Amino acid sequence: MPATPAWPPRSAPRLFVEDELGEGREITIEGNQAHYLAKVMRVREGDTIVLCDNATGEWAARIGEVSKRHIAATISQQLRPKENVPDLWLCPALLKKDRYDTVLEKATELGIARIQPVITRRCVADKLNIDRATVLVTEAAEQCARTALPDLIQPVKLAEMLRDWPENRTLFFADEMGGKPAASAFSSAQGPAAILIGPEGGFDDAEREMLLDHPNVRPISLGPRILRAETAAMASVAIWMAAQGDWVN
Ligand code: SAH
Known about the structure:
The protein is of the alpha/beta class. 30% of the residues lie in helices and 25% in strands.
């Protein structure tokens, strides 16, 4: 079954909008999105675009009047309902901006349900521009034709996250010091899951002890080499998606 329908063409611009969408509704696209459609994608009256609202799903829309800062669109038909996102969270320790951008974008493409940034002792960065991160995740979701956005949560300290950890969710701890091979760990654990990735400097002994003491935590290995955090994030999410996610149709 094709991931996205044959019509409109895959080249049709895709956007997440704030408005709730429905057949026959008229919406006005403004600001940067209007500029992108008018100046980059050069849409014209009568063109078809694809809109998502992260609530009802994906819709075809017909372009009406086009001006520099406003574009009118009429919602014509639903193309796909909002997808069920595989129940995997990624808990990546904050990294330097460019590398974290890669984590945010690739986790979105790979199908993650929630990104929970974590602050650990060796984090170089200690805050995240959540508005900028939201734009980046949204653009990645538009590019890879998701019909649902990942949840993006404010950063939390590791100890707090563990204290409040949901009891029905397994937390796979990517431990550079070793653990169960990721593929078999993921295959043998059903249900809601999360993957924790450390910062450039890894986890310190006290953090590792705290993690290994937690009832929901399972240490996993991503092989014999030391991966960059962003590589570890991408690789572990991909392995989980293949074992337990929606890459098995
Ligand atoms: N500088 C540290 C490594 C940090 S790598 C050192 O030299 O030990 C950043 C993060 O990626 C780690 O904290 C871990 O979560 C993950 N990671 C990297 N390689 C890994 C591996 N082989 N197995 C499991 N996790 C790994």
